[in-house]
Amino acid sequence: MTKMYSISRGDVLFIVLVMLLVGFALGAAFAPEKIVSGENAKAPVKVEGERVVEMGIPAIDMEGNGVIAKLITTIRPGTGQVLVNINDVFAQFDTQLSGRSAARAVSNVTLADLSSVDIIYDIKVNASIVEGPSAGASMAASIFLALNNIKSADDVMMTGTISDDGSIGQVGSVKEKAGIAKKEGARLLLVPENQSMEETSTRIKTCKQVDAVEVCNIKYQYGNMNIGSSLNLTVVEVRTLEDVIKIYTKGVPTSS
Fold first, then answer.
1. Any bridge partners for residue 161, and if so which?
2. Which residues fall within 8 angstroms of residue 28, CB to CB, at 6 or more apart?
3. Where are the extended beta strands (E) located within 10-91?
4. HSE on the CB side for 111, CA within 13 Å?
5. Residue 176 in domain
6. Strand pairing class (117-124; 66-77)
7. Domain assignment of residue 84, given as a range
8. Is residue 65 a contact partner of residue 105, using CB atoms and an 8 Å limit?
9. How many CB atoms lie within 10 A of CB 234?
10. Is 221 helix (H, G, I), strand (E, B) or coil?
11. How far is CA 10 from its chain centroid?
């Protein structure tokens, strides 16, 4: 005669609990080693007092005219706040976001933990409205310079967006920005990749006499011209924040 065994609800819960504990133990034993990342892998930044960097950035107002804005970036002991102040100017929301992306880019590229400092951007410009995120790369560069006590050269300017990973994105009106940068004393303008050249077109007219009628044909020849060539301005393309840092610390690389 077969003996029947009954399992209570408590027994079932106990068995399930044991199986879960065994699973966790096996998982911990055979799981790959966790790579330290994020803020734990970054070196804490410590500053005493305030560090201030000023630089000019070419911008475009709402009428499409080139203007030079003065970016004043202050680093001071704090709690990781990022503030953007634009005196007497309406700042587009993406300009505010650029300031935060710039801080994250510097942190990610240089492995610096910025949670113990505050970053304050003051932008002064003779315009009613500043639009677009094209100051982002300059904001990131100014943070790096301030952290390392490097003064920004007055004759170096830059335009470009910034991403959290440090990549520099394209912007508009590069020719107009180059023009105002040169007018305001820039010797070197850093621009995003593939934006140092301007597409040009040349109108070519050829005519020939057919009987008593002159027949003309119009063709356009297209090409590319360096934006800085007609301005006597050095225009250098940069892809990443690392490229910008190398230029500020080592100078513009010369071609061989």
1. 169
2. none
3. 43-44, 51-60, 66-77, 82-86, 90-91
4. 6
5. yes
6. antiparallel
7. 43-196+227-250
8. no
9. 17
10. strand
11. 60
pLDDT in tens, 13-69: 555 555 655 454 444 433 333 323 345 578 888 888 999 999 999 998 878 888 999
Residue 232 domain flag: yes
Residue 121 is predicted with a pLDDT of 92
Report the amino acid identity of residue 28: A
Higher pLDDT, 162 or 249: 162
Q: Are 233 and 189 in contact (CB under 8 A)?
A: yes
User: Does any domain span residue 59?
Assistant: yes
Give the tens place of pLDDT for each residue, 134-185.
899 999 999 999 999 998 988 999 999 999 999 999 998 899 999 999 999 9
Could you count the other beta carbons within 10 Å of the beta carbon of residue 131?
16
Domain membership of residue 243 (yes or no) is yes
Q: Which residue has the higher pLDDT, 251 or 239?
A: 239
Given a contact cutoff of 8 angstroms between Cβ atoms, the answer to whether 141 and 135 are in contact is: no
Contact 194, 237 (CB under 8 A): yes
- CATH number reported for the structural domain that contains residue 92 in this entry: 3.30.230.10
What is the count of structural domains for the chain? 1
Residue 95 near residue 132 (C-beta atoms within 8 A): yes
Average pLDDT, the chain: 81
Q: Is the pTM of this model over 0.85?
A: no
